[in-house]
UniProtKB/TrEMBL annotation:
Chain segments annotated as transmembrane: 12-36, 57-76, 82-102
This protein's name: Predicted membrane protein
Keywords: Membrane, Transmembrane, Transmembrane helix
Origin: domain of life: Bacteria
Length: 118
């Protein structure tokens, strides 16, 4: 009976991981449109290569998300090995990387100190 309970919780964990990874696909048509517009835009502002790389990585990464999620979904559903949890978690790690790229893609503003008293 312990094996049946363990398998039951593993199924819940697997489906929970797959559901969390699949939720962003609900907004994918809108994200795809915004990412394509971002890639098509031309910027006249010169930024450091790191910020340019983070910007392009985020835009291309959001476009490629279904290519990451769908194979992981099929691999996680098709096997019985412990690797299925790894396959189910890969999209969440990918989303975490996209989140980090999003927060690092804008160059910091060069603000002068306007609080000085003359």
């Amino acid at each position: 009976m312990d094996i049946a309970i363990s398998t039951h919780y593993q199924d819940y964990l697997l489906w929970g991981l797959l559901l969390l990874g699949g939720l962003p696909l609900l907004s994918y048509p809108f994200v795809l449109l915004a990412s394509l517009m971002g890639l098509a835009g031309q910027s006249k502002v010169k930024v450091h290569w790191f910020y340019w790389l983070m910007n392009k990585s985020f835009l291309w990464g959001t476009i490629a998300y279904p290519v990451v999620y769908l194979p992981c979904y099929w691999l996680a559903r098709g096997g019985n090995s412990p690797a299925i949890f790894l396959y189910a978690a890969i999209p969440l790690v990918y989303l975490l990387i996209l989140y980090l790229c999003f927060h690092r893609m804008d160059a910091p503003l060069n603000r002068k100190n306007t609080d000085s008293t003359d």
